[in-house]
Specification:
globular; single chain; alpha/beta; 11 helices
């Protein structure tokens, strides 16, 4: 897994996959910068009809429910269906589902369209699976291990890999359960850091047919860069800038040396 993750980072830089993002308005700029830094090409295409057509040519697609305005809500199901029809891998990030009815209904409609990867915090995954009522807005009030049964249930029902973010990320395809222990708490102090990880997962999924491997590789590269950035930072502001720099700088040898997966 370590060697494959390192190899995928090199392949990503060679191919520069085109990642379509229907995403959180507060995270758009950060997500685009993260994708550029890691070596992918971002496209923020979320207008109905246009988004659907773009999904057919994109390498990967992120659908993030962070700020689901009316046009985005209209675009999301058709984009997911177009991605599936074109064999374009797509990632669902069910931000703040549970307590908020509009996005919760939409998230359940979207997960039924069989995303390649579902990425969220523990409370979001519990709610999406019908095991809980959600967290405090975008903040989780549950642990990744506490959401494991929900993640397994989602993965088995919808044929997706489910990635539960936390101090140790828990990732499953419904059979295997893997844990990535890299990362740093400063990631939780930067708006859009979780949203951008979903976009990175879409980039990696476009290069690897095994979505479990893709999700682990994306998570590992992302969280190792966070560790490196934290070593050079004095707080959230300097960390955000250093994190983008480290994503641009990270290489395969660093992934092999620092990746903590079990």
């Amino acid at each position: 897994m370590t060697d494959r993750s390192a190899e995928l980072l090199e392949v990503l830089r060679e191919r520069s996959p085109l990642v379509q993002n229907i995403t959180n308005a507060v995270a758009t700029n950060f997500t685009a910068n993260v994708l550029l830094a890691i070596g992918a090409s971002p496209a923020m295409v979320d207008i109905p009809t246009e988004a659907e057509e773009f999904a057919r040519i994109a390498s990967g697609v992120l659908i993030n429910l962070g700020t689901p305005h009316e046009e985005a809500r209209a675009a999301m199901p058709a984009t997911a269906q177009a991605a599936r029809a074109s064999d374009t891998p797509w990632v669902l990030d069910p931000v703040a589902v549970g307590a908020l009815p509009v996005r919760t209904t939409l998230a359940r409609e979207l997960v039924a369209l069989r995303p390649t990867i579902v990425r969220g915090n523990a409370s979001e995954i519990l709610s999406l699976a019908g095991f809980g009522e959600g967290g405090r807005g975008v903040e989780s009030t549950d642990s990744p291990e506490g959401a494991l049964d929900a993640a397994l249930s989602l993965a088995r029902e919808h044929g997706a890999v489910v990635a539960v973010s936390g101090p140790t990320d828990v990732i499953t395809d419904g059979r295997q359960v893997m844990r990535v222990s890299n990362g740093h708490p400063l990631l939780t102090k930067v708006t859009g850091a979780g949203c951008a990880l979903g976009a990175v997962m879409a980039a990696f999924a476009s290069l690897e047919s095994d979505a479990l491997v893709a999700a682990i590789a994306a998570t590992s590269v992302y969280t190792i860069a966070a560790e490196l950035a934290a070593e050079k930072s004095s707080g959230p502001g300097s960390f955000a800038a250093a994190f983008v720099d480290e994503l641009a700088r990270i290489d395969a040898d660093t992934v092999r040396a620092r990746m903590a997966v079990a």
